[in-house]
Design brief:
Strands 4-3-2-1-5 form a five-stranded antiparallel beta sheet. The protein has a three-stranded antiparallel beta sheet with strand order 6-8-7, covered by helices on one side. Strand 2 and strand 3 (about 215-220) form a beta hairpin. It has helices at about 1-35, 40-45, 50-65, 70-75, 75-115, 120-150, 150-165, 165-175, 175-190, 235, 265-275, 310-330; strands at about 200-205, 205-215, 215-220, 225-230, 240, 250-260, 280-295, 300-305, 365, 370. It is elongated, with a radius of gyration of 41 Å. The longest helix has about 40 residues, at about 75-115. By secondary structure, it is α+β, with helices and mostly antiparallel strands.
């Protein structure tokens, strides 16, 4: 009877204590969160309930399974102990990663709620994201190392690896040169304020928004919802356009190729009317000038400002569409034309047929008898 009751008491008691601790921690965090709604930390820490319960349950079982005299446990005593140790290490690492992530995310949320500079908020967001990944990577490596050291054979391997650390370090450095380069490039991007999550960039002729930055790659979401994945080392070694750096305000331009008879002054009046009716125009500036000419057309540039790149694109499309429609309806002669027929020849007076000039004498008569021509 004892062989049956003792395992039930140990396992059932461990589960009961685990559930009670998880419920109590969640209840306490909810009470604290209700009293301090300005701090999102306590609500974020509630996400640690599951790893906390796994850690507590595994720790209780690891400390009490030796008291069970069941035949199965006695036979596989070492294997069960090692398995519980591995689960305990993994659960602890999970709890540390989840807790550190909640703390970092809470700090960012409080900063973002009080900050007024959108560019600075994106910078902090990029740094926070990379810090979370670095912490997760470090904790994962430490946990994996601790799990390997629980095996006696791996301790001997670790000793031999430390003895030849110099050679292995050189080999690993050469083999992982690209990976290490991307790792340091990611840290340089995070703390060098080169590019941030949410920035509008142009890379390889593609326009898009930075959606994700990791320690090794960067993802750009294009305007047509494609994803361009690039190594972070590209942004430290190649030139690229960052439209969000130094402020989100943008200036958009639209070029019109028109006939020489285009009504420039009336186009200026129409452009002012269009931008004033457009919600995407920020009201800072606009202009319309002739920037170039050719034997057949002139180039008219319309300029308008916007709050960000998205609004600049919108106001450009609006100006282009409405201006062309207005020219087509009110001034069709201003649109460029292509001549497909020969030009009519000018009317010239007809020349008389060629005739020999009349014969003139070199000498003619005067009244007194002769005259000289």
């Amino acid at each position: 009877m004892e062989d049956v009751l003792r395992p039930l008491i140990v396992i059932g008691g461990s589960l009961a204590i685990t559930l009670f601790i998880g419920w109590g921690a969640d209840w306490l965090l909810r009470r604290i969160d209700a009293r301090h709604p300005e701090t999102p930390l306590w609500d974020l820490l509630r996400g640690c309930r599951l790893p906390l319960q796994v850690t507590v349950c595994t720790a209780l079982l690891r400390g009490s399974y030796e008291t069970i005299n069941a035949e199965v446990i006695t036979t596989h005593h070492t294997a069960i102990g090692r398995l519980l140790t591995l689960v305990l290490i993994a659960a602890t690492a999970w709890l540390v990663i989840r807790g550190s992530g909640a703390i970092v995310e809470s700090s960012y949320s409080r900063y973002a709620a009080s900050a007024h500079d959108a560019a600075r908020v994106r910078r902090v967001r990029t740094q926070v994201t990379l810090i979370q990944r670095v912490v997760a990577a470090v904790v994962g490596v430490v946990a994996a190392s601790a799990m390997l050291l629980t095996f006696p054979a791996m301790r001997a391997v670790g000793t031999s690896m430390l003895a030849s650390a110099g050679i292995l370090g050189i080999v690993a450095g050469v083999a992982a040169q690209s990976t290490l380069g991307n790792l340091f490039a990611g840290l340089q991007i995070a703390f060098g304020d080169m590019v941030r999550i949410g920035d509008t960039v142009v890379v390889n002729g593609e326009w898009g928004t930075v959606e994700e930055i990791t320690l090794t790659f960067l993802s750009v979401r294009t305007w047509d919802e494609r994803r361009i994945t690039m190594p972070v080392s590209y942004f430290t070694s190649q030139p690229f356009e960052n439209w969000s750096r130094g402020g989100a305000q943008k200036t958009g331009t639209v070029l019109f190729h028109l006939d020489h008879h285009a009504p420039i002054e009336e186009m200026r009046t129409k452009l002012r009317e269009i931008v004033q009716e457009s919600r995407a125009w920020d009201g800072r500036d606009w202009s319309l000038v002739v920037t170039d000419t050719s034997p057949s057309t002139i180039v008219v540039r319309a300029l308008m400002t916007a709050r960000d790149s998205d609004d600049a694109w919108t106001v450009r499309c609006d100006v282009r569409e409405r201006m062309i429609t207005w020219l087509r309806e009110q001034h069709p002669y201003a649109l460029p034309r292509i001549t497909t027929a020969p030009a009519p020849q000018p009317h010239l007076p007809t020349q008389p047929a060629h005739t020999d000039p009349p014969h003139e004498d070199h000498f003619a008569r005067f009244d007194n008898g002769f005259r000289k021509s």
